[in-house]
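Backbone description:
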Amino acid sequence: MERQIQGFMDAVENDEVHHFNATAKQADFYVDPDAVLAPLAAFMREQITADQLAQATLTLSDAEVSVRLEMSVINLPMQDSKTIGKIMDVGQTAPINIYAVIETDAINVSGLRIDALAPATTYLEQAATADQSLHDWVLLQIDKLKTAAENAAQTDQLAATAKKAATKKATTKKTAAKKTTAKKAPAKKRTTRKAPAKKATTTKKTTPKK
């Protein structure tokens, strides 16, 4: 299965792509991702047989996570197809590959991960090998999501503990301040200073001479 680069870009831009959408709960996806993704893989093989460009999307209904299988001529999501013209010669023809894409803020800094599974022809003719590649890829992404969730939970717990400790410290300090204010200083004893006793003075009387 091949496409001219410019023809592929035009088809994506005009949405000449066959779509398949499915939903699942996060718990079911974690427990048996192969079963949850099986309808997507089957749809993609049908479109390869029909020589149609396609994209299959799984959305987790209780988490902000989407997993896709999509066709492209390069390791870029279909949504970024306009960028292809800056990388490849649009006049050339290239084989169509099947890519696995996951979108969620928890997966990495960019919030998106895309990896090639197999050329479209191989994906159809060697289904077991292609499905194993998808299985391994999905388990790796699930492991990353679980680790991210555990780290987030630990961070929240530490923040809650720190906040509780800070609140307790502030309350204790406030209580201590109230006790200090309520305590009256002992009254000072008033002392009376006695005035010094007056000295008695004797006046000598002089008798005039006769």
